[in-house]
Structures are given as structure tokens and as C-alpha cells.
Amino acid sequence: MSVLIDARYCGPPTSANGGYSCGLLAQHLPGAVEVTLKSPPPLGVALSVESDGRAARLLHGPQLIAEARSAALDAVPPSPPSFDAAVAAAAHYAGFSGHDYPTCFTCGPARAAHDGLRIFSGAWRNGIVAAPWVADATLADAQGRLPPPVLWAAMDCPGYWAVVGTAQPRPPMLLGRMTAQVVGGVEVGERCVVIGWPLGVDGRKYFAGTALFGADGRCVGRSRQVWIALKRGE
Hints:
Layout: E1 2-4, H1 18-26, E2 33-37, E3 46-51, E4 55-60, E5 63-70, H2 83-90, E6 122-125, E7 128-134, H3 148-154, H4 157-164, E8 173-182, E9 191-202, E10 205-213, E11 219-229
Helix pairs in contact: 1-3
């Protein structure tokens, strides 16, 4: 099977958003899926997906981009804030004062409305970051549903902002692994809340949990993440 990631879904300017890429591969497996990114997913080129129902791989020619497998997911999300409280938290989004990837599909402040997700996660309470999100019609598939890669993307960057907090200078990081499960859907125009919380540090590895909640408070999806801190210029 061949797929192509449009430039709209970038993370860094020249590669795809990590959460979107993970979700693109994970949709070929049931239940909770662990996706490990092996190299930056390229944009605008043909990629191949190989899956046997138990594992899946995303390749660019012979190069392995990501691999996925069914997995257990132990991330139990805390209770989310209200939508209005998430709006208030987003006003303190640290990315407004500096961002390594300002055009990131999920959290880039340089992305226009009706283009990027514009999920701006700000400090809420007890180390949790929160952001409001209203899904745009341009993200829906032919059946009017938001496809799994978009929901995975929505749960991506809040994990980064949870682990870096308000630290200055803020270390650049890339998503290395994301284990997630989507258990429901989101409608266009629905007032959602996304949260992230830190789960620890081991050297250059930072661990986080994230979750996406619908307008009625139901948990639509949750994830556990591993972020890899980079050296400046790496």
C-alpha cells in the first residue's frame, strides 16, 4: 500500500508531524498501538505501508521510517478542565514567546486558522497543560469524520509542552515513540479539550501522557509518549 503525507501535516518544516505519522501507521492495527519513529517522515513523496495484522512498517524505499505493534497502554488520564478553563490556560502557551517549529501542524503559532490545529497547551494545574480544540471541516474525510491520524496529531505536542514546562532555555525535542488508542470520534465544530502531563525523565528521554476529550467529557483518545531531547543544531 502506498501513502503520501501532504506538506500541510509537517512538524519540522521538512518532515511530517510525529503524531500524524504515527496515527497514519497505527490505523492498520487494532486497539492500542505503539509506534516507534526511526527517521524523520518525509513529506510529499510516496511511502509504503507493510502490515500483517500484528505489526506494521512505514518505509521510504528501503529506509524504515516507523514501525508499529499492538501494545498495552497504561496511561490513565487525569480529569480534564472545562473548555473555558482550557481557553484560559492556552493564553499562557509558552510557544507564543518562542517555538523551534512555528509551522508545526499541531502546535505551531504561525499556522493560520483552518490550516493547522492550533492546539496551544498552557499550564493548568498540578503540572498538567491544557488546550481547547475545535475541529475544522477541512480536516474531515469524505464521510465527515476526522481520520485517526488527525486525532493522533491532536494528542502529540501537548506531551512536549508538559515535559518542558516553562524551562528556559527550552530544549528542542522530537517525538520518538507514541503508544495511543482512539476509542471514539470527534465531530466537526465540537468543543474538545486536550491535556498533557509529565511522566518522568531518563537522560535524553522525556516521558509524557496526553488525552483528548470530547464536548461531553468523554475520553476520545489517550497516549503515552517518549520524547528525545536534541542538542541545538542536531
